[in-house]
């Protein structure tokens, strides 16, 4: 990729926008570090994907992975909702935090929508637009044409075009650039490893910035959708936002380095490092979940006649580890007084912990499980 040229600046009168090079073309990988990391990333993804075959009821745990991704990806964009708050109902969230909470919930809906839609619709601009519409519905960006590519200039950083850090391509070139990106995704004649195609896909999308708002979240979600669509992962169990949030400055610096210096190798190295670290973290998490399951099942059997009801509750807690007495009552189809008794027993066994300290409206958390996703 020594000959790669990222694009050029084009005068738009009072400012200059960046016009990226089309990516639907042949690519030659000649960097040893990239090739070495690619091999490692393939191995780790293979190990992670194995869990989708052997973990029982994996859909329960995927929901927590999705919630963590929604929280971390939204955090990159400035929201302050943590994973504990994201698990609450809206009326349990402080009024001043409800807008951030809604954005995280919308991202959860967008992820679930996209993953479901991928079963009937190929990875495409249409899928991206429809997912964007779900993401932006009813939140702060809802007036910025949800589900539609922009028809005006946007920018990144600064308060105006005059002091922007980066100005994406002019809006009239967005359809052509997105069409090129879609053709790149489906061009089987390009003999480029799928992980590198995913890296280029993300870089190009973030550079095009086709929407007025929500580009970062959609761009990061596209990585997972691509890997599932191409069969690299059987289930959507890898999300990069936690890695990108922890390395936020380096993430933005590497994207800008491509645009300014055409250093695509540095971006590929960063991206593959993220895949490796995230896959390893996912493997550790799934392994810990299996161990926790066995440990919890042994404790539940000590509850005697209440073990069956406790099992129903615990299974639901793997999907949402924050609960109150009313929810326990519905989960186990038991009366409210019986639910309080069952919660007391789960608390005495150290399975759940009360987190409000209040006399009313008490909330309990499956703490040992939630810690695996913090």
Q: Which value, in Å, is the CA radius of gyration?
A: 23 Å
Classification by helices and strands: mainly alpha
- Give the name of the CATH architecture of the largest domain: Orthogonal Bundle
Mean pLDDT: 92
Gross geometry: globular
Order of helices and strands: EEHHHHHHHHHHHHEHHEEH
Please identify the top-level CATH class of the largest domain: Mainly Alpha
- How many E strands? 5
* Distinct helical segment count: 15
Distance between the termini: 38 Å
The CATH superfamily of the largest domain bears the name: Fido-like domain
Helix content: 55-70%
Describe the sheet with the most strands: 3 strands, antiparallel
Q: What fold name stands as the CATH topology of the largest domain?
A: Fic-like fold
Please report which band the strand proportion falls in: under 5%, 5-15%, 15-25%, 25-35%, 35-45% or over 45%.
under 5%
Question: What's the assembly state of these chains?
Answer: single chain
How many distinct folded domains? 2
Query: Runs with pLDDT <50, length 5+?
Result: none
Strand order of the largest sheet: 3-5-4
Structure description:
With 374 residues, this protein is mostly helical. It folds into 2 domains: 7-285, Orthogonal Bundle (Fic-like fold), CATH 1.10.3290; 302-373, Winged helix-like DNA-binding domain superfamily/Winged helix DNA-binding domain (Arc Repressor Mutant, subunit A, Orthogonal Bundle), CATH 1.10.10.10. It is 57% helix and 4% strand. The chain is built from 15 helices and 5 strands. It has a 3-stranded antiparallel beta sheet. Strands 1-2 form a two-stranded antiparallel ribbon. Strand 1 (7-11) and strand 2 form a beta hairpin. Helix 1 packs parallel to helix 11 (264-301), helix 7 crosses helix 11 (264-301) and helix 13 crosses helix 14 (336-348). 34% of the residues are buried. The mean pLDDT is 92.
């Amino acid at each position: 990729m020594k000959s790669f040229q990222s694009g050029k600046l084009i005068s738009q009168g009072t400012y200059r926008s960046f016009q990226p090079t089309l990516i639907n073309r042949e690519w030659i990988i000649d960097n040893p570090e990239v090739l070495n990391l690619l091999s490692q990333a393939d191995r780790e993804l293979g190990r992670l994907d194995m869990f989708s075959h052997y973990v029982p009821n994996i859909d329960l745990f995927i929901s927590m992975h999705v919630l963590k991704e929604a929280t971390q990806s939204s955090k990159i964009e400035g929201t302050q909702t943590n994973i504990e708050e994201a698990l609450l109902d809206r009326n349990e969230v402080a009024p001043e935090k409800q807008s951030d909470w809604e954005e995280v919930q919308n991202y959860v809906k967008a992820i679930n929508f996209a993953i479901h839609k991928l079963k009937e619709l190929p990875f495409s601009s249409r899928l991206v637009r429809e997912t964007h519409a779900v993401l932006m519905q009813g939140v702060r960006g809802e007036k910025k044409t949800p589900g539609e590519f922009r028809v005006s200039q946007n920018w990144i950083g600064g308060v105006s075009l005059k002091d922007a850090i980066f100005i994406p391509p002019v809006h009239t070139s967005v359809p052509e650039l997105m069409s090129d990106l879609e053709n790149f995704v489906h061009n089987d004649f390009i003999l480029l490893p799928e992980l590198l195609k995913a890296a280029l896909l993300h870089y190009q999308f973030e550079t095009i910035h086709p929407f007025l708002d929500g580009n970062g979240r959609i761009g990061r979600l596209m990585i997972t959708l691509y890997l599932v669509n191409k069969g690299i992962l059987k289930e959507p169990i890898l999300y990069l936002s936690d890695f990108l949030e922890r390395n936020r400055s380096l993430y933005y610096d590497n994207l800008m380095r491509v645009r300014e210096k055409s250093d695509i190798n540095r971006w590929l190295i960063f991206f593959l490092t993220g895949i490796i670290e995230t896959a390893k973290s996912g493997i550790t998490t799934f392994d810990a979940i299996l161990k926790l399951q066995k440990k919890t099942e042994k404790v539940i059997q000590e509850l005697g006649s209440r073990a069956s009801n406790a099992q129903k509750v615990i299974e639901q807690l793997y999907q949402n580890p924050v609960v109150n007495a009313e929810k326990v009552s519905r989960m186990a189809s038991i009366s409210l007084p019986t639910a309080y008794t069952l919660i007391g027993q789960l608390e005495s066994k150290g399975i759940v912990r009360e987190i409000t300290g209040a006399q009313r409206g008490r909330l309990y958390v499956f703490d040992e499980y939630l810690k695996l996703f913090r």
